[in-house]
Design brief:
46% of the residues lie in helices and 19% in strands. With 302 residues, it is α/β, with parallel strands linked by helices. The protein has one domain. It has a seven-stranded mixed beta sheet, sandwiched between helices. It has a two-stranded antiparallel ribbon with strand order 3-4. Strand 1 and strand 2 form a beta hairpin. Helix 1 packs parallel to helix 13. It comes from Lachnotalea glycerini. This is DUF1837 domain-containing protein. InterPro entries: AbpA_HamA_C (IPR014976). It holds the Pfam family HamA.
Amino acid sequence: MELSLKESEFLSSFDLLWSKDLDKYKKNKLNLFVLKINSNEFDYDLLVDMLLDPVIDYSISRQVKEKYKNRPGTLSQKAREKFVDYTRNNGELGELLLFCFLETHLGAPKILTKLELKTSTSHYVNGADGVHFLKLPDGNYQLIFGESKTYKNIDGAISDAFKSIYNFKNGINEKGNEKSGLQYEKSLISDNLFKEAFSEEEREFLESIIYPTKRRKFDVDDAFGIFIGFQINVNDDEMAMPTSEFRKMIKTVVDKEVSKYFAYIQKKITDLKLQGHNFYIYVLPFTDIDTKRKRIMEAITK
């Protein structure tokens, strides 16, 4: 099954500062990205441009995309209408960014997004921010469940992300609805596969990833993709720096800030008994995060 964003230029919006393993077994990887900088400001306009096409793949099933493949204007309109309806009450920029990173950087095709699952059932709560799969070098697979948090403080975002994953894995729903958790999510995915797969062969393949069968020749493990957005502050004196020095300063500050949380993340994984899972973590700093997040969401849906 192909990637939804196989020809996307999404990653050109960023510089990848580093990808680092967080544990000795190299199961958990943190990828630190920084937006391109233009005149001592993060280039949010470039990010908006690079999200205009991915929002279609995020919002619209492969089946609908195939139906309107020769009518790009109609396809774009339908995707934005659906995304606007969803984001009015539930939307989060982090969900869209995580979808893009998992597709373009990790190479993990989407199965379904939270938007598709949320709109398919009124009972969908505490669910993953999208579901992807990843083929491993040994021929086995991982089913990747997404979780995104964009907060001013990085520690709060990390803490709440892992709390949500723990609740999701264990079927704990603070809203009191019984229908939640990892196993319920798998049943929803199975019920909604007809929206995504073009052929019976693809449906059977995805079903075999979700549920084991006698014919299955590979193993599947549950893994998690996490997007963490957090705020950094830039003062007037720093804004006045030469552009080359400003870029170096920002990357140094972000590197030091995020690196402080390696042990914290591993402790969360251990304390919550999540060591058996692989984690693919994407971290991105913002300036004035609440304002910029709102501006980006408005720009990609207008």
